[in-house]
């Protein structure tokens, strides 16, 4: 993989591990009981039964009573938008002003917490400045261990009010040629994919979701330039005008897309070409229920929750690929979105597939991660509990027994307890 996210990956683990006795959720096939998964030099070597035997010299890890699953992938995050969370920074009057680099340290703490919670890959779909590019490079050089981080650079947007509301996050571009240039700029900066605002944002009072913010020619140029260079195109889609442009132009992922139930033809088109829908239900609930937004936005938010529920069910019924995106700066809590997807009609297994194989497909990295299959990178999570019966177990760090990143133990209760024992 030549994507910057993979170039920044830690070195693959060395040696052989044999995880045996676990219940294995592969992310895309039947659950296997009393299984053995062998990892060699950072990649999955085999998936079989306990009685298939263990290679000589392997380090055996007994997992009876536990579930082994692929690492969780948050396909839609905004890690730098900490002003919307208690994690700050929010200095009181008279306190020292926040220095420019502090946000990076706070986001780094989120990334460390995320891998502890079993999140092994995050796709950030819009950040302030270059903080995520800097953090990813820090992980590359061993500053800390966190999830694999895919970034879009600046969000490409036609000139619109959002550029005022989110300074340093947008690259405004008007006209087809300027769209192509903006795509090239993000790739030059180190993006793994590119993102366009086809419509306004539901969190901005000056942006109506209708009509589309970009023209058909602008959308076509954006998607074509991304694909021409081998990159994936993500489209922020709320109103149907912009959603239609994105779907018909071939955008790889439709972010939000909550009015699509009103256009079954677009859902059929998306399913037919294996495009991915990322519903982002949790943030829709936040706008509708937190009591901190304007009355107009909250009213619109309640309508959007209703529409998103109908869209998720309709998309599932016609076979649209679904991915999990928490749409938050607190990506370590992304399992909340798995629970939301179940509340809105998916089975537990469907929601877990969306958070693993579905998200890997959305990111275009399903050849490397997202399922437990021979040849794939060993991004794995051992759960002390059964998220197939109760997805909420993923929200308690005590249940995250072990997290493997690229075949190396990275976090988990097993490592925490070992540290506590050694300190005692």
Walkthrough of the structure:
The protein contains 13 helices and 18 strands. By secondary structure, it is α/β, with parallel strands linked by helices. The chain folds into two domains: 119 residues, Urease, subunit C, domain 1, CATH 2.30.40; 292 residues, TIM Barrel (Alpha-Beta Barrel). Strands 1, 2, 3, 4, 5, 16, 17 and 18 form an eight-stranded mixed beta sheet that branches. Helix 2 packs across helix 3, helix 5 packs parallel to helix 6 and helix 9 runs antiparallel to helix 10. The termini are far apart. The mean pLDDT is 94.
CATH class of the largest domain: Alpha Beta
* CATH superfamily caption of the largest domain: Metal-dependent hydrolases
Strand tally, please? Answer: 18
CATH topology of the largest domain: TIM Barrel
Tell me the span between the first and last alpha carbons. Answer: 43 Å
- The total number of structural domains is 2
CATH architectural label of the largest domain: Alpha-Beta Barrel
Radius of gyration using CA atoms only: 21 Å
Mean pLDDT, rounded to whole units? 94
Beta-strand fraction estimate: 15-25%
- Global shape: globular
How does the helix and strand content classify structurally?
Answer: alpha/beta
Number of distinct helices: 13
Low-confidence stretches: none
Largest sheet report:
8 strands, mixed
Helix content: 25-40%
